[in-house]
Amino acid sequence: MALNRLSDPSAVRAALDEFDRIGRSAFLDKYGFKEARDYFVAVGERRYDSKAVAGAAHGYQFPSAGPLRAKAFSGGALTVARKLESMGFQVTRPTTVRGALPRESDLLARTEAEAEAQVEASGAFDPSSIEDARKKTFAAIVTRQGQSAFRRALLDAYEHRCALTNCAVEAVLEAAHICGYMGPKTNDARNGLLLRADLHTLYDRMLIAIDPATHEVSIAPELRESEYASLEGRLLRLPKHPGQRPSAEALQIHWMHVRSIREGQS
Fold first, then answer.
1. Start-to-end Cα distance in the chain
2. Residue 75 — pLDDT band, cuts 50, 70, 90?
3. What is the Cβ-side half-sphere exposure of residue 130, based on CA atoms within 13 angstroms?
């Protein structure tokens, strides 16, 4: 079974990072898995569907082979759990009530739905809290734009302009990881692109990709009738300094993931 080849913990961590970044529903849809019932990877208070994580991790470790789909697993959830445990990850079974399955909000501490619920439940408008709210909003923007040193490196590399649109409005330029964030070592300019905020979101959601061979933009079919259609075939603007240019290997990993998604949808 292909799962036996999986051996790199960093590939699993990359999958977990992507899970956090795009959310549970999008992650499961992307890799073709249903919600787990029995085994979950546990990281602190967070829970991740073990089969989907293992399938995605296979693609990170073996870009040329790509992620494993649900039908590729022949050994069941317990086999997957034991494999992940052998790689140093904690795998748990949920506590259910009268056989009920755990709710998604119980499995993931920070999903988009929960974030929206927290905002809605935050209470009535309070003028006295405006300054505190302003600080929190600014902190959230900084976090989204990217770790400060990483973002500064990309601003320098791309001359304070979006790598795809040449947008020079620095307030909307964000530090996008080509491969998912897996710790400080991934905060290298070669693993990053300076993108306008909306393009960063599309890139993270695998709706746009960069061909590693030609550096041309490829957009998902669902964008072809949108304002983003003009991006198709556009060339990525490369930094002048060779040492700051995006890693071909990193672009290849993202590219292979996008191709596997599109092939699964066709």
1. 25
2. low
3. 2
